[in-house]
């Protein structure tokens, strides 16, 4: 138990280091964009390749893709229902943040500490369904409410999905796994070396993006968002944990997955759709802190 808590402490120290480097102007927040691109397009895909290569995937794991996708749609529409009296801009800005989870940057480093490679496998399958929500539903909500008259362009959404390297990597390695094809040893060895950087780089990036300043007039809207996201997430996650007929790792994946922070993709969306970027960034950071505390608590109960 002490060793486990020390691992969490090390994660906090790395996040704090990233924040300190930003505060001292050694690294600027805009530098995080380049680091995020490296993580999303290189270290995270490498981790996916190493994790899924040659792995025997149980049929129950495919249910995680389905659950991740359906839950994203469910909570997305519930969120829009509770936000129906808000202005069009606020409905779009908050509505796009409700579905979708930050799995690649937030969950993977911590899940690896708690569950090891097995945890990465389960959360990887959950993230496949989540990716369609992040790059599909969230984008559609943000786009639709950004202006009074918006024509949804399905080609743009499909294009974004096809250009998502993590999503395409997930799909590719799962298909290769199912048909029994293993990648060459050289590719796996290189990917293994690169994947080792995913955890520290992801934690540093979380620290670089930490920011807690916001307009006080948004406080009620923030509390409503947090109530919807974590209230429903905790309720559905607990019910799944208690009643689903699957193994414990499957249940923990859903319980923890539904309590993860909002996706970092909402940050570039807020720029594209001209929403309040400081509000989106601050609320994203608050979800990181809340999710970190909840995940630490759940992990301690497990241990």
Automatic annotation (TrEMBL):
An annotated GO cellular component: membrane
The entry's keywords: Cell membrane, Membrane, Transmembrane, Transmembrane helix, Transport
Primary localization class, coarse: membrane
Keyword Cell membrane appears in the UniProt entry: yes
Subcellular location: Membrane
Sequence intervals crossing the membrane: 6-22, 34-55, 61-83, 95-116, 128-146, 167-187, 193-214, 226-246, 283-302
Superkingdom of origin: Bacteria
Recorded topology in the membrane: Multi-pass membrane protein
Any one Gene Ontology BP term: transmembrane transport
Name of the protein in its database record: AEC family transporter
